């Protein structure tokens, strides 16, 4: 398993500290971004990912805490370009691989079948 | 309930200056900008299983959670006013 992505900023406190990438609060380079509070439309992919997470929770395979930790472990470059639910499915996939629910080979085979 | 006695409102506390992020996979709810900072306990919020353990599906001891108030200017030198109250687990707090 990889370590958490770290984003040490160039200079100044607290930006110089070895914060984890998602630990964005209080970092001045994010200060001027207005919070997007508009409702977001969900597409089929979003709903399907949400349903998968719900099923894994109901069957006690994976908790929301594990989901969140997996999202935090996504490398920064990937994290910043992914949508909300793309981060979810990435975390879910990483968790399932780590737990041995399916193997990387099985995942690849399943993805081939969808082509 | 957590095994440790409650911190009273008004108690001065220091946030541990610890960086688990540098030691491997972890899940930390204590913001980076508060590590090593001194604040004052505002109130007890309850006791909850430690999210640092839940994140790895490990057995999670129940910890007290507090609202702790900090002076913004002590964290960000150019801060003018405002308020900073953060939820912190007892495992991150030490006597100040």
Characterization of this structure:
- The complex is a heterodimer of chains A (115) and B (96).
- Chain A has 115 residues and is an all-alpha fold.
- Chain A has 2 domains: 1-33, no CATH class; 41-113, Nitrile hydratase, beta subunit (Cyclin A, domain 1, Orthogonal Bundle), CATH 1.10.472.20.
- Helices cover 49% and strands 0% of the residues of chain A.
- Chain A contains 5 helices and no strands.
- In chain A, helix 1 packs parallel to helix 4 (84-99).
- Chain A is globular, with a radius of gyration of 17 Å.
- Chain B is built from 2 helices and 5 strands; from the N terminus they run ββαβαββ.
- Chain B has a single domain, classed as SH3 type barrels (Roll), CATH 2.30.30.50.
- Chain B is globular and about 40 Å long.
- Chain B is mainly beta and 96 residues long.
- The model of chain B has no long low-confidence stretch (mean pLDDT 94).
- Chain B has a 5-stranded antiparallel β-sheet with strand order 4-3-2-1-5.
- At the A-B interface, helix 2 of A face loops of B.
Low-confidence stretches of chain B: none
Shape of chain B: globular
Order of helices and strands of chain A: HHHHH
Helix content of chain B: under 10%
Total helix count of chain A? 5
Q: Which chain pair shows the most residues in contact?
A: A-B, 22 and 19 residues
Largest sheet of chain B: 5 strands, antiparallel
What is the terminal-to-terminal distance of chain B? Answer: 24 Å
CATH architecture field of chain B: Roll
Query: How many structural units, i.e. domains of chain A?
Result: 2
Report Rg of chain A: 17 Å
Which structural class should the secondary elements of chain B be placed in?
A: mainly beta
* Termini gap of chain A: 29 Å
Tell me how many strands of chain B there are: 5
Number of strands of chain A: 0
By CATH, the architecture of the largest domain in chain A is named: Orthogonal Bundle
């Amino acid at each position: 398993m990889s370590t958490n992505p770290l984003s040490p900023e160039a200079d100044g406190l607290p930006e110089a500290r070895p914060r984890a990438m998602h630990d964005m609060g209080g970092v001045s380079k994010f200060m001027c971004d207005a919070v997007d509070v508009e409702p977001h439309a969900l597409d089929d992919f979003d709903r399907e990912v949400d349903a998968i997470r719900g099923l894994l929770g109901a069957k006690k395979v994976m908790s929301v805490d594990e989901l969140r930790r997996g999202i935090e472990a996504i490398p920064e470059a990937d994290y910043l370009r992914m949508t909300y639910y793309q981060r979810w499915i990435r975390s879910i996939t990483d968790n399932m691989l780590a737990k041995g629910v399916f193997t990387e080979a099985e995942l690849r085979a399943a993805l081939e079948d969808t082509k | 309930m957590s095994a440790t006695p409650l911190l009273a409102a008004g108690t001065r506390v220091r946030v541990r200056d610890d960086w688990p992020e540098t030691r491997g996979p972890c899940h930390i709810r204590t913001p980076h900008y508060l590590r090593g900072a001194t604040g004052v306990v505002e109130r007890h919020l309850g006791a909850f299983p430690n999210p640092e353990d839940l994140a790895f599906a490990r057995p999670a001891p129940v910890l007290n959670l507090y609202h702790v108030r900090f002076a913004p200017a002590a964290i960000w030198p150019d801060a003018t006013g405002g308020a900073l109250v953060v939820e912190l687990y007892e495992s991150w707090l030490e006597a100040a």
